[in-house]
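Entry for iron/sulfur cluster complex. Fields follow.
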Amino acid sequence: MPYLHAPEDLGEVVGEEPSYRVDQLHDWLYRTPVLHAEDMTNLPGRLRAQLAETLWPFKVEMEQESDRGTTKKWLFRAPDGAAIETVLMGYRRRATLCISSQAGCALACTFCATGQFGFERHLEAGEIVAQVAYARAFLRQIGMPGVPDRLTNVVFMGMGEPLANYARVREALRRMIEVMGMSARSITVSTVGVVPGINRLAEDPWPVYLAISLHAADDELRSSLVPINRRYPIEKLEEAAWNYFEKKGRRLSIEWTMMDGVNDTDDQARKLAAIAKRLRAHVNLIALNPTPLSEERSSSRLHIAEFARVLESLGVNVTIRDTRGKDIDAACGQLRIMAGNSPEAG
Ligand code: SF4
């Protein structure tokens, strides 16, 4: 499966072909990716036929679209059955891809469909990069109405906790930045607070953006929603986030999923404002996309706007994030529940 291989291994794939084929294949895989091996027009038929079976490390099991064709969600299936969800969101000037770093997740956040499913396995670096290459190929060859034909941003906000799969995510970042030529500024790694992972990321050479999925601003509430908080409480998380900010000089963001009657109170807003100001972070508020197995419901739009106003009045920069693909269950972890791969389905 060439796509699981590092670019350095492409010589093995082209076999007896002349060495310039390595460069050609490298370009097709990493620079101007295409959806099908037959589109690799300067490669000989034999090599294209060989690649037809092995170009992608997964099959497209489900593809859904919404928002008038500007949101696309794929459920990819690896040969061992692992499910990989990827969402592409197109806008007038940008196209953002939300990628998965693990099949499932062990961290069991109460409001998250992926967390409810449990952990399947880590994704390989090639499987992470392949999601990016696939979306790039899709934008170039098929496209979305009114959306640029190139991928402008990648966010690690799909299934899994990226910093719990550190080595493979690191290798994926290396390939995306150093091989595919993406800017580190176009990439955001999101974490619920794996403190050692944040510290390691701070030592890596690439100044990617860091998003902290906070969701609660005191340890008691946070530990009940995000169990890893018991291991890395807010104070430790703040320390690591600040260290990252100081080392990289990249503005931090705090992600806050709005849950009705849970974390949308004035008290939480005040505590959140204090943290955001200490970290000089931007806050993104996101309506909860309810999952079949969780009790939490989203705060109303009015209430989210009110919560945002409270934060602003306390001097915090805040954005209410656009929720995409509601009608296609775009919250990660939900597609495979639809595909019958749910905890209930066993
Ligand atoms: S919110 Fe993220 S870290 Fe928590 S269970 Fe879901 S995927 Fe895992």
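NOTE: Residues 125-141 form the longest helix (17 residues).
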